[in-house]
């Protein structure tokens, strides 16, 4: 632990106002708002199947990380002598493995695997390293937390992609039941509000997929500008839905679950409905 403490002190010795703002910005790329926007944009505007897989992977990876944190029960470096911790609102729960690093590195692994180009591998590796470094610079994680986040993200990346490839080839949806059972067990074990929200998102993702594949069958077509406009309309409506539900529903775990079920159902089935009405009919 002393070696890790010295590493943190060394990294923070380069402190400046510019780097504070820079790394606070970088760490945003591992947070809910950024990832939801990117995954929904890819799903609606770039590639539907990959977007869905990316969303499933990201949400399940968040829950997997929460289970790991509560299993290892590791304290953060916050409050240690000589360590300055910034952006504390993002440093909730236990320390190992780093949630921002695990989720963001998983995101870039998925993007690298999809694009499959040398330049994207370089960019992805750079961003993973930068996000990990941001958590150290901000003084909210130990070096081992960052390494652990990358390692466990690799494990989950392989597990989810192998499982989904198998399910697609064999048409055996029972593998998704198994994954939901694993994640549901983690929710019961952790019982955190954030985990309940993420499980609600996964449930909404699943039911949204059923609705979209049975009734909507949207295809990504039309020029990019029209696609982006339709996506933006969907996101604006999503924000209204989110805050409307927050006002209407009481503040308890059941309400949080229902809110996020509806939010993800809107992303998967609601926003594509805009595509059919605005793009396909106009074309």
Automatic annotation (TrEMBL):
Q: Which InterPro entries does the record associate with it? A: PAP2/HPO (IPR000326), PAP2/HPO_sf (IPR036938)
Q: Which UniProt keywords apply?
A: Membrane, Transmembrane, Transmembrane helix
Per UniProt, residues of the Phosphatidic acid phosphatase type 2/haloperoxidase domain are 51-161
Q: Where are the transmembrane segments?
A: 25-46, 119-138, 144-162, 174-190, 196-216, 228-245, 257-279
Query: Has UniProt tagged this entry with the keyword Transmembrane?
Result: yes
Transmembrane helix as a keyword? Answer: yes
One of the Pfam families matching this protein, by short name: PAP2
| Protein name listed in UniProt | Phosphatase PAP2 family protein
Q: From what organism does this protein derive? A: Defluviitalea raffinosedens
Q: What is the lineage of its organism?
A: Bacteria, Bacillati, Bacillota, Clostridia, Lachnospirales
């Amino acid at each position: 632990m002393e070696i890790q403490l010295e590493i943190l002190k060394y990294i923070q010795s380069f402190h400046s106002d510019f780097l504070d703002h820079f790394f606070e910005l970088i760490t945003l790329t591992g947070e809910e708002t950024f990832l939801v926007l990117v995954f929904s944009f890819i799903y609606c505007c770039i590639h539907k199947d990959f977007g869905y897989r990316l969303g499933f992977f990201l949400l399940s990876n968040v829950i997997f990380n929460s289970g790991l944190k509560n299993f290892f029960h590791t304290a953060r470096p916050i409050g240690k002598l000589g360590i300055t911790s910034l952006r504390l609102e993002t440093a909730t729960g236990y320390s190992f493995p780093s949630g921002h690093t695990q989720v963001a590195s998983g995101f870039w692994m998925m993007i690298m695997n999809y694009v499959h180009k040398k330049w994207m591998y370089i960019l992805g590796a750079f961003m993973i390293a930068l996000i990990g470094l941001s958590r150290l610079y901000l003084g909210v994680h130990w070096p081992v937390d960052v390494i652990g986040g990358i390692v466990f993200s690799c494990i989950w990346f392989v597990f989810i992609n192998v499982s989904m490839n198998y399910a697609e080839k064999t048409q055996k949806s029972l593998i998704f039941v198994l994954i939901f059972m694993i994640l549901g067990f983690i929710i019961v074990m952790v019982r955190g509000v954030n985990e309940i929200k993420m499980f609600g998102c996964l449930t909404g993702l699943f039911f949204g997929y059923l609705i979209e594949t049975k009734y909507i069958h949207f295809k990504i077509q039309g020029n990019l500008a029209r696609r982006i406009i339709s996506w933006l309309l969907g996101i604006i409506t999503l924000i209204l839905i989110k805050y409307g539900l927050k006002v209407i529903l009481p503040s308890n775990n059941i309400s949080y679950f229902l809110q996020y079920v509806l939010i993800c159902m809107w992303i998967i089935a609601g926003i594509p409905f805009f595509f059919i009405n605005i793009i396909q009919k106009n074309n």
